[in-house]
Amino acid sequence: MKILVTGGAGFIGSNFVHYLIEHSDHTVTVLDKLTYAGNLASLEGLPDNRFQFVKGDICDAALVDELFARHDAVVHYAAESHNDNSLDDPRPFLDTNIVGTYTLLEAARRHDIRLHHISTDEVYGDLELDDPQRFTETTPYNPSSPYSSTKAGSDLLVRAWVRSFGVKATLSNCSNNYGPYQHVEKFIPRQITNVLLGERPKLYGTGENVRDWIHANDHSSAVLTVLERGRLGETYLIGADGERNNKQVVELILREMGQPADAYDHVNDRPGHDLRYAIDPSKLRDELGWRPAFADFEAGLADTIAWYRANEAWWMPQKSATEARYQAQGQ
Ligand code: NAD
Ligand code: DAU
């Protein structure tokens, strides 16, 4: 197949592009606006005969139309992805996550092209710490932030275009990803790069909030599985049984980096901060036989720390502007 990947210069999209090139015969075109979160350095080393990059906006209907005409499938990662930014300025989230997804759906309808929509577990809201139920495909939507509400809106658009217009789409909702090439605004890279620069990690609130961590490579293998074998119109939840609270993660990072486990600061909490996410991935495992390869979070985290240590040139250009934004918010 000729696959168009939107947002392929971001953290998870670029991981998927590398994964596709290594694990399939498909060719790939990336469509990416190169916002602050996009980085062409994440796509270095890909073969010219199987990879092409197009700089552009998913809201540009003419460009999207031209690209859909010459591809067989689309995997849609492009989004404004950071909760803290959405609390500061929600507008770009509405433009890209809602209008951008709408633009792709209209093109998918015109070209009758296969589309896979990438979404997040945050559309389901949050769970109590002791809730025995995890999120499943039938959990009601209950998003908390401008980011998660625009992702929820985009999911609902996809479902409506499937039902009303017969668009050949699947959806997946994944838990928190970690791994190389993640922007330093996000939790794990922020703390690793702080320690590398002699700064202390910053924990929001008490640090009791739980996230369900999955390595980005496992997200990519799950998406390729759904793209190739998922049932049209279906949603698949992607997770790897990786629940940890934020305090545990910061302590793991500090220990792995040779620092005392309590060498971090508590800072202002995120307004409306979701308490816990947890994915039940049974449908994906039972129906499509998918399994994560990175079962050991501590080992994956150690590899990720080693990657940031070795790739300062990749992350350093964004670090000071990112920290200046956090400082202005007391975080
Ligand atoms: P990211 O912020 O690292 O990358 C987003 C990419 O989209 C960037 O390359 C950016 O330039 C591009 N982009 C933004 N607006 C665009 C536009 N209008 N047109 C074209 N390109 C545009 O995000 P990420 O963490 O890699 O997340 C990718 C997707 O996965 C998002 O849809 C996100 O909601 C979803 N997701 C992320 C996680 C996570 O833990 N990071 C978990 C589950 C789902
Ligand atoms: O669950 C999937 C979602 O995971 C994706 O949809 C989002 O795109 C992705 O950004 C991520 O959202 P979170 O808000 O969970 O991720 P973030 O890395 O921003 O924060 C993870 C947790 O760490 C969260 O509880 C907030 C906390 N945190 C974050 C930062 C940046 C801190 O304690 N300190 C920090 O400095």
Question: Could you state the order of secondary-structure elements as H and E?
Answer: EHEEHEHHEHEEHEEEHEEHEHHH
Structural class: alpha/beta
Describe the global form: globular
Under CATH, the topology of the domain at 2-177 and 214-238 is which?
Rossmann fold
Q: Separation of termini? A: 45 Å
Q: What's the CATH class of the domain at 2-177 and 214-238, please?
A: Alpha Beta
Small molecules (ligands, ions, cofactors) in the structure:
nicotinamide-adenine-dinucleotide, 2'deoxy-thymidine-5'-diphospho-alpha-D-glucose
Q: Helicity range of the residues?
A: 40-55%
Number of strands: 13
Q: Estimate what percentage of residues fall within beta strands.
A: 15-25%
The pLDDT mean sits at 98
Q: Which residues sit in consecutive blocks of at least 5 with pLDDT less than 50?
A: none
By DSSP (H or I, 4+ residues per run), the number of helices equals 11
Strand order of the largest sheet: 3-2-1-4-5-6-11
Strand count, sense and barrel status of the largest sheet are: 7 strands, parallel
Q: For the CA atoms, what is the radius of gyration?
A: 19 Å
What would CATH call the architecture of the domain at 2-177 and 214-238?
Answer: 3-Layer(aba) Sandwich
CATH-wise, what's the superfamily of the domain at 2-177 and 214-238? NAD(P)-binding Rossmann-like Domain
Keywords: Lyase, NAD
Organism: Ruicaihuangia caeni
InterPro entries: dTDP_Gluc_deHydtase, NAD(P)-bd_dom, NAD(P)-bd_dom_sf
Cofactor: NAD(+)
